[in-house]
Amino acid sequence: MFSLPLKESVQLKPLRSGHARELLQLIESSRHTLGPWMPWTQQLRALEDAEEFIGNAARLYADNDAVTAGLWERERLAGVIGFHEINWRSRSTQIGYWLGESFEGRGLMSLASRALIDYAFIELGLHRIEIRCATNNKRSRGIPERLGFLLEGVLRQAEKLDDGYADHAVYGMLAEEWGAKRPLF
Asked: Which residue of 78, 83, 144, 158 has the fewest C-beta atoms within 10 A of its own C-beta?
């Protein structure tokens, strides 16, 4: 199963059923910062919900349809990142990510995103990656911007949030661009 060391004491590795409690605790401790952008946090409130999420992620990975990994720092779950769905015909995917509040501001998600992008282009042979973020979510938008993704447009009212609809900024990167732009942090 998918596992990538990023730097000393930081790695991406699959979530397993034994991680459900830690996943739920991380979401609980960050619900007030995640919730405005990620309505799914309202449905993930019980240990069974976390176990179901992890089981579904494992099934999608086994079917070669998606990749979901925990971002671990010093053996503590810091966040989750992955490919929502891999379109093998078009050789494209979309990256999604979130980070626990106590892990923000240290470059962990940029590091994890860069590694996952390398994996997509080099190991999986994908051609295109998208990252979509709510236009008002400056922290989330900072990831593709730091990584050199091109802002391709804005999808109006693309997602229903608790307080209305959010526009999504759509960022894209092609494999040949990544080779030339790949940041070295």
From this structure: 158
